[in-house]
């Protein structure tokens, strides 16, 4: 067992039981005209983390460790979109509406795709999820069980919405969770900082956080 330097204390890496999960690095959250922008957010914050997410993915691939990708999206007939989710707030475009990159957050539309720089490669699992958490209404739990995965390293967006929701779902299911700090981002810097603080508070009540360099250093030698 090799530890990753982390907060609030070292993360006890189990090399045979760890996977990277990259949450929702989709055009809809990072490009003008997508879902994130329709909610009034500055999406340029998201694109700044692409290099760190990219090198984290590359490190896992190089070490022969699994990489899982998620996408927040809905069926074209909206049958998996609760009316409460579609009607929430006052966005300029709602989920399912036609925008400049196709229908907002609908599976198969150009804007819903994972950013090309971070695209999955052959053999990597891609989970399409209708919720903020990646376990709700998906096959993720069964896939992780089947692969004997017990630890998840998290990257992606947004820190306090889909990343934190999925970390909490995973923590309750018994997974040890580690958030890669430079490889996650929020539209609100104060929410990212708060999410990181609350995740690792109280002796890692939800999980650990670590720097990308420290994660890469350990997995490359494990
Ligand atoms: N709005 C926001 O911060 N996030 C989302 O709606 N989805 C994800 O975090 N993926």
Automatic annotation (TrEMBL):
It comes from Rhizobium miluonense. Keywords: Hydrolase. InterPro entries: Isochorismatase-like_dom, Isochorismatase-like_hydrls, Isochorismatase-like_sf. GO terms for molecular function: hydrolase activity. This is Nicotinamidase-related amidase. The keyword Membrane does not apply. Residues 19-207 form the Isochorismatase-like domain.
